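Exercise: predict the fold of this chain.
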Amino acid sequence: MVKNELELDYLPVPPKAPYVPWNLLEAPSQEVLNRLGIKSGSYMPLSEIESSPIHRSLTGFNELDFIYGYSRFSNSVKWGLPHGKISLWAGESGTGKSRIAIDVAKNRSKLYSTSKVLYFQTESTLEDFAGWAKDSSTYNNFICSGESSIDNIIKVIYEVRPSLVFIDSVNEIDEFESGSKKETRRLINGEDGKIGLRQACNDVGCHVVLLGQLNQNGTIKGGTSLPHLVDVALNLTKYDDSSDGSYFEVGIGIKHRYGRKESGIYGIWKHEEYGVVSVSEKRFEDKIWCNAHNVKYETPEERVMRIAAEYKRTSPFLSSPKKRNKKSIIGKVLRGTGKVVGGIVDIGIITVGTIALTLKFMDKK
């Protein structure tokens, strides 16, 4: 009597299916593809996809254009904001997000007089915003709106058709109340037949900048979803060396799809009475930037040597003895010690400058 499978001490091993190489398997019929909802032509080999450089436009701040990166065309290199993409500028309250956004909007209004900048202010009245922007009456292509719902914001974008959009701030958008993953996807990608910001900026060809406030623990409303769904994430922080809080730094955050991601790509701005000014020159330390702008590239060591040489040439204590007044007492004293002091100071300047550059580089790393 043969035992059934439950009574056996072991289970019988089923026969193996015959091996068929994957490239010899019969392709599924069109009927099967239709039943699965797979459209013909919805996929293609990578070798048949033609890539093209993304178009960009300037911000009016060379250092900010440098942070955003470049696109290389056949006969030129373009820097700045990538068209049809979304950025997130995140920082603590009072860092300078709105001030630099207003200045970029003003710069763009002058640089591209035939295009429009659209600024959504969701945190205050437009009258107050006009006061912050100061000489706002001279910018006819600087358009403002107080809309705070996603649907109305997108509607205004299609009506105005700007080249640059600021939403200040994303934290105050009505449908972005909790910043959940669902709300974030609705905001960026849309859902249930409703358009999101990504489709709107693609259709119009503009760049959208979301200004977001960081929480005390360093996170932004929307958690990790918002920084990962945008194309570029920049962090604005108060500069460490600024005791009075007048300086702030703009650097690359966790996302930069269309630019470089090195830790040394950042810029420093200073708050002034009528806006912010760029006070750093990191772009001159980049060979690609210098070549694209016909500027002589210098290594950090060469730059220290040049600054030391300029200081020696212009300093009254280190300049050539022939240029001093030989009849003066000071001239007589300096003639005797000029060469010795000059040599010592030369070494000191070069050493201190090199150490300072090294420490600053290590600190940024």
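Check your answer against the key: The chain has eleven helices and 13 strands.
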